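[09:14] KT: can someone run the structure on this one? pasting the chain below
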Amino acid sequence: MASSNKPIYGTISKYYHFAMDGEYSSGYNEINVEVTEWWKSGATKNEAKEVKTEHNVYYRHTKANGWREYCKPYKTFTNKNYTGSIINFTPNRKAETQYQYTRVNLGDW
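[09:31] RB: done, structure tokens below
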């Protein structure tokens, strides 16, 4: 059963790993976010449905596709297919910037 306590902040964790034109790229980033909307019913009741960063970048959760970047004015999602990216939300946690990284390797992992 879902808790009645709604999270009001947390972190978005973005992982990516892909190759393009012989260059391999990977990275990890955490971003502090504020919850702007919650699920209203079902198994995910009172869990975060939409969050925003301090720079007004929105991320939204859907049951079919998980967390994705969201353009609120146009109500469209950024396509993350074939990008090797994973986006997760962790409630009630602050970003730990010491673990963030970006790597580009030429021709080999």
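[09:33] KT: thanks! The chain has one domain: 9-106.
[09:34] RB: yep, looked fine to me
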